[in-house]
Amino acid sequence: MPDDRPVALDEYPIHQVPLSMKHLATGDRNAYDRCIFHVFDHQGRALLILGLGVYPNVGVIDAYATLRRGDTLYAVRASDALRDDARMELAVGPLRIQVERPLKDFVLTCAADPGDPDGLSYEINWSADFPALWEPHHLQRRGDRLTLEGRRFVQAGRCDGWIRAGGEELRLTAGEWTGTRDRSWGVRPLPGEDGGRSADEHPTQGFHWIWSPVRFEDRFLMIVTQEDADGHRSLNDATLVRPGERDLQLGWPRTDITYRPGTRHPRSAVVHLTHPPDGKPLELGVEVLTSSPLAVGAGYPPADDWQHGSWRGRDWTDRRSYDLADPAGHPLAAYGVTDHAARFTLDGRTGHGIFEHGSFGRHDPSGFTGFDSVAP
After folding, report:
1. What pLDDT, on the 0 to 100 scale, is given for residue 196?
2. pTM, full prediction
3. Most buried of 117, 233, 269, 364, CB within 10 angstroms?
């Protein structure tokens, strides 16, 4: 018989609807609440991506961490049953995110595996340098059906601590490493989703995505765009955050991407922005340093070995490594989003951040004609 007693969170004045915090206001199986952190050095030697999510209506909590070093991607994934008493304890298996001060300080931990001394482990202090910034409300429909509704905020900061993998230890030195993070919640498709007639009659023809948080010494820039096959934009924002000043909206970002021949893997890019109120053009230069496909190790679609929200039983943990030098070993990565650690230039300043990009199917503005189309 289900236990419907109050939970610890019900003690706090945080309710949005007349329900216990044990229950969501929606019965949608695809409800989710999760985060992602990026930690990377300014030379492109290491890119650590980690996150944790809860999926209340399927009863799952899971987490992951991937580290790219050279052509090797080290991965740790963990999944368990979601417990009512653990919603404020962000931990699964060896992976933990400790909130020291909300919106400010975090401790990111991956415990070592005693049986795998060359596996991934870390302990990192992640501290925000800028206030959190709301991203645009994100909606996607397939036909008349709402398939994704997400609310997000993004932030950038600095890191210190250590990372170990492959018999090496990396020390995170102030001024040489950058951190970004994203928090989102709402509904988005989980594995096992059946799109029904709407999916059959409204197939995806193309998807083009850019999500780019950039940390400069004295300011933070966030750019996000999503376009359909014909270039119609369903998500669009470019905002510059300067402490103590009003945020600046930098117009309609337009991006010219230089791809590696025979791929849709960006080598560099220029994002064209507009400075208000005089309309002065601004150019954000992007130089990719290293890359990590989210469909390899990190559990994002269309990963074929594990995806977020999948029920793997209680106390499931998986550790493995991937060879990113062999694209044939992970062919689905080309049809998912890739996070690129990058160096950015803007108005005489140099910064560092993530250039997250996904382009698959037709995209008329880029000249891509279908899912098998690549850059010349």
Report:
1. 82
2. 0.96
3. 269
